[in-house]
Amino acid sequence: MMKFSSLVVFFFIFPIAFAQLRVGFYSQSCPQAETIVRNLVRQRFGADPTVTAALLRMHFHDCFVRGCDASLLIDSTNSEKAAGPNGSVREFDLIDRIKAALEAACPSTVSCADIVTLATRDSVALAGGPSYSIPTGRRDGLVSNSADVALPGPTISVSGAVSFFTVKGMNVFDAVALMGAHTVGQANCGLFNDRITNFQGTGRPDPSMDPALVSSLRNTCASRGSAGLEQSTPLRFDNQFFKQIRKRRGVLQVDQRLSSDRQTRGVVARYANNNAFFKRQFARAMVKMGAVDVLTGRAGEIRRNCRRFN
């Protein structure tokens, strides 16, 4: 559970929006809302445990464009969903199923933005990650443009990656913890193929990558076209990601750089050595991220269909 002192910190970071978000926002208007979300996520997780990575990706990609407003869910030829970096985002059908169930129980009450936030939280817990209370009360955005999508790529510098988070009110502990979500992530081999074949035009693999991992990834990419970002427990939410990058087993270049960069290597070491500390920090960072540029009160709308504006 989130302690009051943590909530005070979040309030000062996001004073207006966070003040209007609260744990149990739907306790009167739709008391079964969080149970409905949790049950449908559990059902989906039972069929495909990679849903955790998919929902984390959806949540991140939504929140870091126009804030956590479900603008990513809109179907349109020029919406955020149509932008290149979002081509690999999936599980929109799960959000549709949850929304349909909530509309049947409590019409026009629970926002799509809150559905994404709650579903992500529940999927993390199912994968062995932290279970935490998260404030709700977000409203859905009225704008979704592909031109607004500017997300960092796998070769971004560590300072660039950290800045991506800090401009949204988070710190280096938050940034590294949230990047630790790669412990359950998957990536298309095209995002790191140069590291295992022809790094920076040298004709050889990236020397910072463990040769055994190079060989393993070559085999995996030849047969599947994608690979887990953490190779030891790819479906389990734990701190193995940090342990692995300290052994030169980071798949993405930016992930590997976290373990050696002066700004982040100490944080990586702390997370690698203390799984409970990592999970606690991850939960705090997720609550912070969930408050980024949210719409509350009378702003935005409560969509009846997550794929379309009302």
Automatic annotation (TrEMBL):
<feature type="disulfide bond">
    <location>
        <begin position="189"/>
        <end position="221"/>
    </location>
</feature>
<feature type="binding site" description="axial binding residue">
    <location>
        <position position="182"/>
    </location>
    <ligand>
        <name>heme b</name>
    </ligand>
</feature>
<keyword id="KW-0408">Iron</keyword>
<dbReference type="GO" id="GO:0042744">
    <property type="term" value="P:hydrogen peroxide catabolic process"/>
</dbReference>
<keyword id="KW-0575">Peroxidase</keyword>
<keyword id="KW-0560">Oxidoreductase</keyword>
<dbReference type="GO" id="GO:0006979">
    <property type="term" value="P:response to oxidative stress"/>
</dbReference>
<dbReference type="InterPro" id="IPR010255">
    <property type="entry name" value="Haem_peroxidase_sf"/>
</dbReference>
<feature type="binding site">
    <location>
        <position position="152"/>
    </location>
    <ligand>
        <name>substrate</name>
    </ligand>
</feature>
<feature type="binding site">
    <location>
        <position position="62"/>
    </location>
    <ligand>
        <name>Ca(2+) 1</name>
    </ligand>
</feature>
<feature type="binding site">
    <location>
        <position position="238"/>
    </location>
    <ligand>
        <name>Ca(2+) 2</name>
    </ligand>
</feature>
<comment type="similarity">
    <text>Belongs to the peroxidase family. Classical plant (class III) peroxidase subfamily.</text>
</comment>
<feature type="binding site">
    <location>
        <position position="67"/>
    </location>
    <ligand>
        <name>Ca(2+) 1</name>
    </ligand>
</feature>
<dbReference type="InterPro" id="IPR019794">
    <property type="entry name" value="Peroxidases_AS"/>
</dbReference>
<feature type="binding site">
    <location>
        <position position="80"/>
    </location>
    <ligand>
        <name>Ca(2+) 1</name>
    </ligand>
</feature>
<dbReference type="GO" id="GO:0140825">
    <property type="term" value="F:lactoperoxidase activity"/>
</dbReference>
<dbReference type="InterPro" id="IPR033905">
    <property type="entry name" value="Secretory_peroxidase"/>
</dbReference>
<dbReference type="GO" id="GO:0046872">
    <property type="term" value="F:metal ion binding"/>
</dbReference>
<feature type="binding site">
    <location>
        <position position="65"/>
    </location>
    <ligand>
        <name>Ca(2+) 1</name>
    </ligand>
</feature>
<keyword id="KW-0376">Hydrogen peroxide</keyword>
<keyword id="KW-0732">Signal</keyword>
<comment type="similarity">
    <text>Belongs to the peroxidase family. Ascorbate peroxidase subfamily.</text>
</comment>
<dbReference type="Pfam" id="PF00141">
    <property type="entry name" value="peroxidase"/>
</dbReference>
<feature type="disulfide bond">
    <location>
        <begin position="63"/>
        <end position="68"/>
    </location>
</feature>
<dbReference type="GO" id="GO:0005576">
    <property type="term" value="C:extracellular region"/>
</dbReference>
<keyword id="KW-0106">Calcium</keyword>
<feature type="binding site">
    <location>
        <position position="69"/>
    </location>
    <ligand>
        <name>Ca(2+) 1</name>
    </ligand>
</feature>
<keyword id="KW-0349">Heme</keyword>
<feature type="binding site">
    <location>
        <position position="233"/>
    </location>
    <ligand>
        <name>Ca(2+) 2</name>
    </ligand>
</feature>
<keyword id="KW-0964">Secreted</keyword>
<feature type="site" description="Transition state stabilizer">
    <location>
        <position position="57"/>
    </location>
</feature>
<dbReference type="InterPro" id="IPR000823">
    <property type="entry name" value="Peroxidase_pln"/>
</dbReference>
<feature type="binding site">
    <location>
        <position position="71"/>
    </location>
    <ligand>
        <name>Ca(2+) 1</name>
    </ligand>
</feature>
<feature type="disulfide bond">
    <location>
        <begin position="30"/>
        <end position="106"/>
    </location>
</feature>
<dbReference type="InterPro" id="IPR019793">
    <property type="entry name" value="Peroxidases_heam-ligand_BS"/>
</dbReference>
<dbReference type="GO" id="GO:0020037">
    <property type="term" value="F:heme binding"/>
</dbReference>
<comment type="function">
    <text>Removal of H(2)O(2), oxidation of toxic reductants, biosynthesis and degradation of lignin, suberization, auxin catabolism, response to environmental stresses such as wounding, pathogen attack and oxidative stress. These functions might be dependent on each isozyme/isoform in each plant tissue.</text>
</comment>
<feature type="disulfide bond">
    <location>
        <begin position="112"/>
        <end position="306"/>
    </location>
</feature>
<feature type="binding site">
    <location>
        <position position="183"/>
    </location>
    <ligand>
        <name>Ca(2+) 2</name>
    </ligand>
</feature>
<feature type="domain" description="Plant heme peroxidase family profile">
    <location>
        <begin position="20"/>
        <end position="310"/>
    </location>
</feature>
<feature type="signal peptide">
    <location>
        <begin position="1"/>
        <end position="19"/>
    </location>
</feature>
<feature type="active site" description="Proton acceptor">
    <location>
        <position position="61"/>
    </location>
</feature>
